[in-house]
Amino acid sequence: MFKSFVKFALIVMVTMVVTYFIAGLVARFVLGGDEFYPPSPTAISYLRDPAGPGMALIIWPAQALRGLLFAIILFPLRKRFMELGVWSGGFVFAGIIFVVGFVAASGGMIEHFVWFTEYPSKFALITFIEILIQVAIMGPWAVKWMKQAALDKELSTLSMPHTVQAAHSSK
Predict the structure, then answer these.
(1) Nearest Cα to 144, choosing from 65, 67, 84?
(2) From the CB of residue 57, how many other CB atoms can be counted at a distance below 10 Å?
């Protein structure tokens, strides 16, 4: 089970980091999010400059940690994601991350509208689309990778009674 968790966690962490980077580039340079970050004169005051000193040392480990936390929570559901298939399972996976990790989270989108005195609607829309792009890529990619890593095979072996498992292993 530990080996299965490590595989799953690595899959979620890597897909989190890579899709975060891709969606961030799209948001900043295609959707116009760059105008809200320093050094732009229209930057939101509480945002750091992504190119600022030390940001690379903070951002990548932070995204890996987010991936690990999602992996801990989603690990019991991995079988269901794979049973649903790459697309359906991937979008369920993505939907959970989107809703729990962004929209409904304590520091998420709803809270921003309630508590922030400065939260431009355009920035909210760009961020919403950015996270949708991220999870739309991440979910199916993670489920496909889970299947390629044979996590579903590990699950079927783990769920067999010991006598059946021993017989199955000898084949």
Answers:
(1) 84
(2) 9
Indicate the pTM of the whole model.
Answer: 0.84
> CB-based contacts of 92: which residues, under 8 Å, 6+ apart?
80, 81, 84, 139
Give tens-digit pLDDT for 50-95: 888 888 899 999 999 999 999 999 999 999 999 999 999 999 999 9
Domain boundaries, the chain: 2-169
Q: How far apart are CA 36 and CA 47, in angstroms?
A: 8
Tell me the backbone φ, ψ of residue 149, rounded to 5 degrees.
-80, 0
